Fold this sequence. Notes:
Blueprint: H1 27-40, H2 43-55, E1 58-59, H3 64-67, H4 71-83, E2 87-92, E3 95-100, H5 102-111
Antiparallel strand pairs: 1-3, 2-3
Amino acid sequence: MATKGQSAGMADPALCCASVVETPLSHAEAIGLAHVLAALADPIRLQLFSLVAAQGEVCSCDLEAPLGRSQPTISHHTKLLAEAGLIVGEKRGRWVWWRIESDRLADVRRALGG
């Protein structure tokens, strides 16, 4: 039964959930996170990222076989992951060695509440 000042079917504001106005991400943070998540949304980039994460550090030359892609395609995908701040490359001779950018990954986890 509704109390005085409350219409039937309306919940008591004190018993309701937290305000949706109080978001944990600012607009700028949401834009940055969306860029990171978009980089990971591609199946090849997600697989590439998981390979680098599993190995700790991987040479670009070692990514062709497990991904079944040519070197130019791998370069394109590593570039996009690097632009999103997810991996970092170090050129050694002719090849680039990739590793996870752990600080950036920690930022993503925090932003997602994990």
